């Protein structure tokens, strides 16, 4: 019976064997890039939504969701490397959620959409 050391030593492996880590990491890199894509402007105005106390929401960070301001999984299928911001509503109330993705208080709108930078940007393009 061989010891674990014999399996790990390069001399014990055949020359035709590939490094399995390399295969896995290249597959993962395709789906989860090391450098995430930048968020894109979904809309240039916030969306008012009634949040229900205690309910968990997933706010779209990437800007590619068709269900703005919430995530529909587009970040995964478009391989952005981004993931949604999960948050729980503390109280039932109507709030303005950001869709320009430039807010300093995600997921809530802080008025950044009024800036010249956002207004000059095209919907669907990164800032």
UniProtKB/TrEMBL annotation:
The keyword Iron-sulfur applies. Keywords: 2Fe-2S, Iron, Iron-sulfur, Metal-binding. GO terms for biological process: protein maturation. Residues 44-78, 82-119 form the Iron-binding zinc finger CDGSH type domain. GO terms for molecular function: 2 iron, 2 sulfur cluster binding; metal ion binding. InterPro entries: CISD, FeS-contain_CDGSH-typ, MitoNEET_CISD. GO terms for cellular component: mitochondrion. Its cofactor is [2Fe-2S] cluster. PANTHER family: CDGSH IRON SULFUR DOMAIN PROTEIN HOMOLOG, CDGSH IRON-SULFUR DOMAIN-CONTAINING PROTEIN 3, MITOCHONDRIAL. This is CDGSH iron sulfur domain 3. It comes from Pongo abelii (Sumatran orangutan). The lineage of its organism: Eukaryota, Metazoa, Chordata, Craniata, Vertebrata.
């Amino acid at each position: 019976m061989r010891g674990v050391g014999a399996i790990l030593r390069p001399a014990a492996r055949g020359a035709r064997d590939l490094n399995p880590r390399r295969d896995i990491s290249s597959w993962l890199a395709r789906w989860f890039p090391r450098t995430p894509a930048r968020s894109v402007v979904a809309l240039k105005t916030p969306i008012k939504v009634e949040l229900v106390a205690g309910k968990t929401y997933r706010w779209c960070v990437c800007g590619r969701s068709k269900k703005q301001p919430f995530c529909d999984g587009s970040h995964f299928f478009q391989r952005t490397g981004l993931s949604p911001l999960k948050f729980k509503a503390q109280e039932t109330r109507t709030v303005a959620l950001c869709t320009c993705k430039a807010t300093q208080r995600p997921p809530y709108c802080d008025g950044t959409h009024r800036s010249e930078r956002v207004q000059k940007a095209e919907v669907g393009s990164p800032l």
